[in-house]
């Protein structure tokens, strides 16, 4: 007899495939309960809030172009953290993924420079805020995927509902501290501003974060991070379609590598163990090694020819060798 032990994910799928759909329950599927989702949301609400706070603070201290360039380094942080704390096989570090991230950063840099206005702001502080926000976004998505390995286990609307609830209950004293410390005065907004806040909260935060996190679970954390960089060229394309602005050729030159890096990362995540950059590098290395390898000439083969027979002579009748 032979006993084989399958991994937990494969064993669960094999078990569910042998069961009828009527007997499949949330407990068997491994669906997290309300208390488990609340615990995860309690931890990640602070990381999510600090990441958004760092990005907004960076926008107030430096140029938008610099913020976009430094925020695009979140893909590099995600690639490194996912390799250190992997959640599945798609988080494996490869040279091709690194090149895709670098291609995305270069494209974002070119797009941002094409729309750069006159310099201004506290560049150093804003740059630090941008790097902090990029790092926190990478920590947020990598650790969440490591905590919840499959999208079926997490109720994403419930997760974001708890995140918003904990932010409301735990972070409201910040209004009082900022107001009485003189750092930022609090005043009631107008109804127009409130309506804009509500619309932005529903569409720009809830819906976009829900779709983004769902896409990260369905693909990989690197794919989700690189998808955030697409918002920069897509927003500029929207301005062009609405005839609000015109851009130079640098924008179109930079938008191509941003989109190309996204589709390249999607292809690499589909084929987990495929690393075309490493394969090409090995072939180039083997080609140059073969080119510089010393070849023997005909004269060398003659010099290596043995003049004495290697076979020992047969002994004579007296036991001596001739």
From TrEMBL:
What residues form the membrane-spanning segments?
28-51, 63-86, 98-116, 128-144, 156-178, 190-207, 214-237, 249-269
> Cellular location of this protein?
Membrane
Query: Chief localization class?
Result: membrane
Q: According to its record, what are the GO cellular component terms?
A: membrane
Keyword Transmembrane helix in the entry? The reply is yes
**Domain of life per record:** Eukaryota
Q: How does it sit in the membrane?
A: Multi-pass membrane protein
* Descriptive protein name: Solute carrier family 35 member F5
UniProt organism field: Electrophorus voltai
Taxonomy, top ranks, is: Eukaryota, Metazoa, Chordata, Craniata, Vertebrata
